[in-house]
Specification:
Layout (H helix, E strand, L loop, with lengths): L1 H24 L2 H5 L12 H24 L5 H22 L3 H24 L5
Helix pairs in contact: 1-3, 1-5, 3-4, 4-5
């Protein structure tokens, strides 16, 4: 189970890193021109960049606390925050009729919920 949870956490961290880099460093206009990124044209550039920074922090919070053995409880806490973020993403994409992205966000939400469940109950980090 530990290996499965690490794989799930690694996948989530990769998603968070990719999303964070794109939102933090790619111009909003470029994001808005791509399918799935249309919502960025409807919000401020600061919001998009802030969301990108939060996603970068999520990538770090999913991996480093456990690897370094410093506050490993932050891994399921970060995964729980990711669940909340995915609810917002699902609402945003749903409003735009982008149901394939809603399904993708639901998959990420399920993966994050699995990490929360696993790290808080089944296979917690022992310190």
């Amino acid at each position: 189970m530990n290996t499965t949870l690490w794989i799930a956490t690694g996948l989530l961290a990769a998603v968070a890193l990719a999303g964070g880099v794109s939102k933090a460093f790619v111009p909003r206009e470029t994001l808005a021109a791509h399918h799935g990124g249309e919502w960025t044209g409807r919000v401020g550039a600061g919001f998009v960049k802030s969301l990108g920074v939060l996603e970068l922090l999520a990538a770090v919070g999913l991996i480093l606390p456990a690897v370094l053995g410093i506050a490993p409880i932050m891994v399921p806490v970060t995964a729980a925050c990711w669940v909340v973020l995915m609810v917002g993403a699902m609402i945003t994409h749903g409003r735009l009729g982008q149901f394939a992205f809603v399904a993708l966000n639901l998959a990420y939400l399920a993966l994050a919920a699995f990490v929360v469940w696993g790290r808080l109950g089944v296979e917690p980090f022992t310190g």
